[in-house]
Amino acid sequence: MVCKNHVTDRGKDCLWGLSYEAVRSRLESCLALMAAYRQSYHTALPPKKAKKKNLASSVCSEKGLFYFPTSVRCSIHSIFGKMDLLEERFGKLMTLMNILETHGDLLENRIDGLIVEDDVSNDLLRRYNAALKDITDRPYDYLDFRLKCFDHHFSEFKNKLQEIRSHISDCVEKTISEIWNTTAYDRILSKRRRLESLIPFRESESSIVKKVVFRFENDLRKIEKGMKKMPGKPAKFTKHTGKICWLMHLIRSLDEDSAALSKNFSDEIPEVDTALKKAEALRNKLIDAMDGLTLNWYPLKVCNIELFPL
């Protein structure tokens, strides 16, 4: 009764009329109080080895605790039975509050923008709101642990939510299936990782690594192949200047792609480590080629100014 009055402020507040944060804070306070009661009970029990009343009484008095006579025979269930049921109900309500807080905003934002179709987004939001209304619009007292109908409705809500999550997973993976073959995977991968705790994605992280590394190494082969036949004379630059600018652009693109690969995946993964080493070797080739063009374009050597003192 004390916990119920605390959560509802003596009946002034409705459970669903408060913010999720406020309800969760009050439930956490009640759960902490129950844990303190339980700890106090176990602390005040006489030692198991103390068979005599005087010895047990003296031990408890030294600790400043109330002594439970050994002649009193009462099970822990008779003391904490109702509290256990109330604690279980509060735990389910905490889980429900966390689900409602995270999934509502997520669906409103179209799963971080990963669902682009209006029809799919509206259908998911409609199904979620229907499940939400079904669990929160019941006429019974949600804090009354004696009513087992909430447990049944809570199980139904979790099953509906799991179906919605599976549908979201299918839609998101269909949308981003081709993104791993491009250089734009960086932003999408970070969003996908934030959603992994909520949405059961079917494609594993190792599969994504293989796709990204395959595209990365394929780009390396294209660059290396393109080095053998330099581009023609540009329209607005001289022949050497155009080739130097082209090589600088390749080096900058290679650095950006290598940095993205290193940031998103650990270099302890063998495929990633091999790809980064290949990229470093190719970068050195590009720098050598650019240095050779620079010497041909500007062959003069700078003299040592120390030979000509002022």
3D structure, described in words:
Residues 49-68 and 300-310 have low confidence and may be disordered. Helix 4 (76-108) packs antiparallel against helix 6 (118-136), helix 9 runs parallel beside helix 11 and helix 10 runs antiparallel to helix 11. The protein is mainly α. It contains 11 helices and no strands. The protein has 3 domains: 1-73, no CATH class; 92-203, no CATH class; 205-297, no CATH class.
State the low-pLDDT regions, or none: 49-68, 300-310
Bin the helical content.
Answer: 55-70%
**How many strands in all?**
0
What is the beta-strand fraction? Answer: under 5%
Integer-rounded radius of gyration? 34 Å
What is the domain total for the residues?
3
Order of helices and strands: HHHHHHHHHHH
**Biggest β-sheet description:** none
- Quaternary state of this entry equals single chain
Our count of helices gives 11
End-to-end Cα distance: 96 Å
**Overall pLDDT metric:** 77
Globular, elongated, flat, extended or rod-shaped: what is the shape?
A: elongated
- Helix/strand-derived class? mainly alpha
